[in-house]
Amino acid sequence: MPAPTRTAAEEAAFMSELLSGLDDSFFNSSSPLASPARHSPRKHPKKHHKRSSPAPRPRSTPLSPLSSRSPKKPTHKLENVQAADVDLAALTAGAEDWDWEDMLTPKKSRSPHKSHRDECTRCVVESIDELEQSAIYSTHSSTTQRRVVLHDDWAWTELEKGDVVNVLGSFKSDASGILSVDITSKNNIIIAHPDLLLTATALSNASQCRRKPLLSSLIRQASSESGASPSLVWGNMLHEVVQSCLKEGRWDEGFISSLINGVVRTPSGLSSLVTIGCDVEAAKKELNARAVGIKVFGERYIQQGNPREDAVLVNTRAKNGQKSLLAITALHDVEEDMWSPRWGLKGKIDASVQGVVEERTESPFTKTKMVASASTMTSSPFPFEIKTGRNVAGMEHRAQTMLYTLLMSERRAVESGLLYYTQSEEVVRVPAGRAEIRALLSVRNELAGWMDKRAKAKERDVVQIEDAARFLPETIDDERICKRCYVSDACMLYRRAVEDIEDVSSPIADIYFEKTGHLTVSHREFFKKWEQLISLEERDIVRFKKELWIMGAREREARGRCFADMVLDHAYVPPAAQAHHRIHQFTYRFVKQGGETDEAASLLNGHMGVGDAVTISVEPHLLALSRGFIVELTPTEVILGVDHELHLGRIAARTRTPTPDVLFRIDRDELFGGMSRVRDNLAHLFYQDGDKRRLGLVVDLKTPQFDWPDVEEDDEVEVLDDAYAKALEGMNPNQREAMDKVMAAQDYALILGMPGTGKTTVIVALIKELVRRGKTVLLTSYTHSAVDTILLKLLDAEFGILRLGNVDKVHRDVHKFTLAARKEANSVEELEKQMMTPPVVATTCLSIEQSDAKKGGFDVSLFRRLSDAHPHAVTDLAFQYRMNEDIMTLSNKLIYSDRLRCGSKEVAKRALILPRREQLTAMHKSSCGNSTCWIEHLLAESCKAVFVDTDLVPARDSKVGDLVQNEVEAELVYQTVRSLLAGGVREDQIGVISLYRQQIKLLSHLLQDHSGIEILTADRSQGRDKDCIIISMVKSNESGAVGELVKDWRRVNVSVTRARSKLIIFGSRSTLQSAPLLNEFFMLMADRKWIYNLPPGAHQMHRSLIPLTTRKRSSNVALLSEADPHSDRHEAKSNACSPKRARLDPRIIDARPLLKDLVNDI
Ligand code: SF4
Ligand SMILES: [Zn+2]
Questions:
Q1: CATH code, residues 702-710+721-882
Q2: Does the keyword section mention DNA-binding (predicted)?
């Protein structure tokens, strides 16, 4: 084993670098609001200060009085800080006498089980007061007066009114009786904007340039993820090998080489080999050579009981004569994802291990012999970071390990971390020294400050693009560093396009010119605009994310974004293992604690549905233990597919709760990867070596070219034409034109496929024809169902098709196209064949939901942009074969400006014919006794498009948490469906659509015995069509509040055009008419006499139709004592915020004497 590589001098140098990073940060980058305009070029970033900032001071000198400190002090002039909305002191009971020095100094021996939770108080800054000598931030709250005094470097923390901070330290009453705490270089810590969780990797990268980690978080490069460089690929693979050895506890050569054998053949392993152009055999050779030391490591360090004599633990802090030995005795976890809202950090730890450290002190008098005059043995957990590169104990590694130590202290009692270098076989102990931690956290605060600036500016003015500029620290202008910087493309692009800086004189002016010289004004504007719109989209993600820690599970559950108090269902056995996605490794079923009680709200009442991404946590500290998505959801249970094992025993031990009491919270998670990939794709258009062709077509709107075939071509083309002619058989003129245009397109052709015009047919024909001509096709849409609708028509295609995406979301019948369904590739060649040879690749793409971003123009689709600029590239498909004339008229008048035409007479006259109408007559006789009742009217063949006004019924909407539903309307829909079925209409002919998720859930529940009926949101209805479509508009209230969704006319239109023969829209005319867009709709409907007014109590006219399934909700019988449901509905708005439970309606009991008796007995 090589000698320890760190000397005391090197150690000191490391400290000083880290701290100098800190001091520079405080002095170099003043307020982010300061002008970033170029000043004179700097020779060295650390010596030169471009802004009017204070001169650097010697590190150890005390702070000079503020008055002389700087002409431009930090911008806070705030008095008082609003305090402690959440006091986390409860979490830290008994920690009052905690000493930071003690916690962070590893040498004092302490019980490893002592709580590591320093007191942490979450405060909101109310005002800041700068006094002489030191900046004093004072805080108070409505309940407690609090003051936070920032000394030393902390005084430069950027804060303003309204900012959230975590104060780590104990408040004590000061002379004036106010609870106060001093944050100094020696004691206590302040975390600014703790809800922004920065990664340990980002922070450890920040020492040279603050701009770099911020840019790389904005733009996540595809290449850095999949591991494009060989050393990254080997590194990732070796990580996996070491992790597997740790898991299995085996370190023999045979085992290691079998692991290597496996690792290179996994799909992800193979695909990274494809990217670096290396074959399996060469990869194995390389990895085996690199893995030599792993076996030695295992023999030396993996040990039960006391450490071996040669298991040296490198401790750079060791005093003369001190020696440490290490035995790793157990593995806690690998790849633990840790989020810490206390430190404002997150990170993934390679492994968490238990280790025994023996510390020996050699007697100074017997230097020649090692005398264990003082030997202590301590067992404690450690974060274990694996480094596979040749670089040993680099400063970044140490910083990262310290941060992991902090992160892990959220879950276990840890005080230092282990760095294992596979190349040098060294294991280094990295204590979390206060000075270094403070430096790192200051850098964290600074970076968080910049990120917060971005977010705030956007909140202040949503669409004001101009404000986007000042949200990155300045460039460091160091030619040597910037030249080698891996985000320099993005850095220069932001400088030019977003920050609008012209650089002709700085030391990096050459780099700047090389990277941005080609950008025109419109390029810059385009990038700037779209970059900001992407950021808008991101904002909500951050907002919802932090609810995980700032909001209790029950509170969040009330908002429909969480399932609280869930327990693991042990009885559940997941279905036989299928090849799963990376994020679906384990399957679990959860039920509410205590099972079905009166209190248990239906799990269906909320924003969470099948397919949604979730995180699983145990309050309060085990956040995001595992992530995954909802596979199945019923009122009482939820089945999740997740990425990490949930080991109840371990979780119970960590939370110190008895196993059966471990309560999970399942939170809706927002977008796994965020928008950084989208931003990266955007940026790539503008890079020097970027996608010039698309830049020209999309940004510069270059005219697309078409190469129309010459009629008198040679024979070969004649042959082709024959086959092509066959493909065109049966197509109408529009469809043929579309086909021709695509075949002639050199750049792009656009087909505007209005509803029912045979888009699917054309797309399928296009794919076949393009493949026949030797082209490759990427098939994509926003929704899985739209992609799969096309693939279902290509099931017997003779060419290869690759369907990418989460297998659980792919239509069962097209599973055979997924990678998972193929024989596992065994070599790079095989994988390459599987991935590269299918001429058709099908996958979904990202869609944009956010309304602010829409206002800014984010919803101007690429299609719109291109078709507006080049109408000649567009073909309209105008002949539609779906809707009858009435339904078509409706969408023509409202959306398509009469461009739609019926494809045939037969289509135009289409009506829904009830094969067993006589059954209905019998039903009327026994209930309403009326052959002209509303159901008769709606089901008449002549009634093809109708708005059914519920105003007189009445049918008011109500709230479940913040979700809206309409129970009476749901019953009306249900009764209509039942009548259709009674009349002989098949279930698969009927579709029910609502814009509201909660209404969908209600309807699904009512119609649960009719699984053939599709109940869909407007978005999911895309690509479907049904003979009869029933739409439930839901909104019905006195204030005329129609909500955003109804205003989104495009969604309504999508729903309307799903109907072939009959369209029934239930809604409140008086409420909906207040939306201008719908007003037009009502004028048309009234004009055509297509409005039908339901009589009062219409839903009670047909006893035999009253929902039977409601009895399945009878677990809530306790609610029967509630007031008359009618009056209750009218009052729904007054208690809109309290979640409502499904209740048993007295009318239902009237209809069922047996049930009534039962209920009366309670
Ligand atoms: S190019 Fe230079 S200034 Fe820009 S991020 Fe990289 S190191 Fe920082
Ligand atoms: Zn009737």
A1: 3.40.50.300
A2: yes
Are 551-671 and 702-710+721-882 in the same CATH fold?
no
Q: At what angle do helices 1076-1087 and 1049-1056 cross, to 10 degrees?
A: 30
Q: Which CATH code fits 120-192?
A: 2.40.50.140
The fold adopted by the segment(s) 901-1105 is Rossmann fold (3.40.50)
Which residue puts its alpha carbon closest to atom 5 of ligand 1? Answer: 212
Beta strands (DSSP E) in 577-724 are 586-592, 613-618, 622-633, 637-642, 664-668
Beta-strand relationship, 990-994 and 963-965: unpaired
602-654, pLDDT tens digit by residue? 777 777 877 788 889 887 667 788 888 888 888 788 999 887 788 887 788 77
Q: Would you kindly state where each structural domain of the chain is located, as residue ranges?
A: 120-192, 230-363+373-443, 551-671, 702-710+721-882, 901-1105
Q: Does domain 551-671 have CATH number 3.10.310.10?
A: no
**Ligand 1 pocket, mutate which of 488, 492, 501 (most atoms under 8 A from CB):** 488
- The C-alpha atoms of residue 282 and residue 264 are separated, in whole angstroms, by 10
36 alpha carbon to ligand 1 midpoint, in Å? Answer: 15
CA 812 from centroid of its chain's CA atoms:
25
Closest ligand 1 atom to Cα of 495: 4
Residue 713, pLDDT score: 53
638 token code pair: 């939820």
Which of 740, 706, 738, 707 shows the shortest CA–CA distance to 721?
A: 740
Spatial CA neighbour of 1060 closest among 840, 850, 910, 898: 910
Q: Using alpha carbons only, give the angle 784, 789, 791 rounded to the nearest 5 degrees.
A: 95
pLDDT value, residue 954: 93
Residues listed for the chain: 1162
Residue in 491, 499, 501, 688 to alter for ligand 1 test, most ligand atoms within 8 A of Cβ: 491
Task: For 358-398, write each residue's pLDDT tens digit.
Answer: 988 766 555 455 444 678 888 989 999 998 877 655 778 88
| Residue 779 contacts residue 787 (beta carbons within 8 Å) | yes
In terms of Cβ atoms closer than 10 Å to its own Cβ (0-12, 13-18, 19+), residue 204 is: buried
With a Cβ cut-off of 6 Å, ligand 1 is lined by 209, 211-212, 215, 475-476, 481-482, 485, 487-488, 491
